[in-house]
Design a protein that fits this description.
Elements: H1 2-10, H2 19-22, E1 23-25, E2 35-45, H3 56-60, E3 65-72, E4 78-80, H4 102-116, E5 124-128, H5 134-142, E6 147-151, E7 165-167, H6 173-180, E8 184-188, H7 197-210, E9 215-222, H8 227-230, E10 242-243, H9 246-256, E11 259-266, E12 271-278, H10 282-314, E13 319-322, H11 326-334, E14 345-347, E15 364-366, H12 369-372, E16 377-380, H13 386-395, E17 402-407, E18 410-413, H14 454-460
Parallel strand pairs: 5-6, 5-8, 6-7, 8-9, 13-14, 13-16, 14-15, 16-17
Antiparallel strand pairs: 1-2, 2-3, 3-4, 4-10, 9-12, 11-12, 17-18
The chain binds zinc ion.
Zinc ion binds near residues 74, 75 and 77.
GO molecular function: tRNA (guanine(46)-N7)-methyltransferase activity
Enzyme class: transferase
Pfam families: Methyltransf_14, Methyltransf_23
Amino acid sequence: MTNQSNMSDKSPTTNNASLSELMHESTCPACGHHVAVTFYRGGSLPLTTQAWPQSAQEAHEMPRHPHEFVRCIDCGHVFNREFRYENVPYQTKPNLMYNRGKTWEAHIERVKQLLLDQLPEVPTVVEIGCGDGTLLCSMAAARPQGRFYGFDPNAQIETGGGLIEARATLFEPSKHIAELKPDLIISRHVLEHLMNPLGFVQQVAFASSWEDAQTKLYIEVPCIDRVFELNRTIDFYYEHRSHFTSNSLTKMLERCSSEVEMIATGYNNEVVMGLASFGKETESIEVAQEAIQFSHGAMEAKNRVRTQLKNLQAAGKRIAIWGGTGKAASFINQFDLDEKSFPLIVDSDAAKVGTHVPGMGQKILYRDLLVRQPADVILIATQWRARDIAMEIESAGIQADSLLVEWRGELIDYHLNADLFDTNRGETLASKSNKDHRPPERAPHLFQPFPETVQQIEDIT
Ligand SMILES: [Zn+2]
């Protein structure tokens, strides 16, 4: 009964719209949550700030774009789910919106003081989307020993006679944080235009961590906290993909920074400002190191396994590959075992026999061929099924000098290492990380090559 009365309480506020009309799987650009609800359907409208039509006709003929604003149910962020960045011609039509009002100037002065208070005596400061560079120049004048860089690919940056360095390019965290090691990155009225502001801040966070740079990030964006009380819709125009509330900016910074040092609103709550600091995040560095190591290992494995196989071929060995679909086809393609050099593919699955290896073309033959015409070497292409396949080879009476399996980037002999493929192994994992629970694995016994190939195998090690 309680549930029913709760449900009827909700219905007036939802205007009886069904959830299927309201709910969208749409990723929040601020917090990354994937469920949003319809917020404001503005219809098909032209650009407003990035277009300055020179005639009535030009104005009438402007392209129109969908204004489908939704609201993230997790952080309250509002965004246009139909926004396409390429529809806004930043390159050809620079943003000409300036606010020259007196109280706006007072706001800028407040921001300047707030930022100067954050800086060391000799700071390095970067401003992203610095426009004409006014704020950065006045900060540089207050800290003449520091280095100040203004990034903006679409503006005429005034350097104040060399007070700041102008960079007419996009700021790339992966490149410029390493180069400049900034104490402070300023981004004012930029993030609301981006397709993925969270992605940008996460890049700043990771690059700072990677480069061991103690970086702070100041973000200032328009704030929509007041639109709810005023029922104001005019904020929701196309160029602003994102509309931050004080909460959505907080959540975005909390997701990726070491510390959110400040969240404040200004200009009668029409802008929201956040200051966050970034430092060393050991876990993400470890994950990245693991990825780099894997990537190198994969390249090395490719060369090593191919050389081992070439040496066997050079020694005149007849090689059969067991398996031609799924992970076996993945093996054959990744190690580039082409039809000409490796024509012999067998499988025990009657459904696969007679089909061809995807991408490579070898015809898959039934395994019993190896009873009549044995191979010297059988390469089991699916490591995870090695034990079952080895048992099947034995029970079918198939003879071979060796069964090879790829293991940590090289081919090893199955019979010398059968315990590594024991399918009875398994662990109960108490947490998401399996690193700590897995017992250490012994080093494999290396593949003992045929006497006449010893020299060649040694050559590659
Ligand atoms: Zn969100």
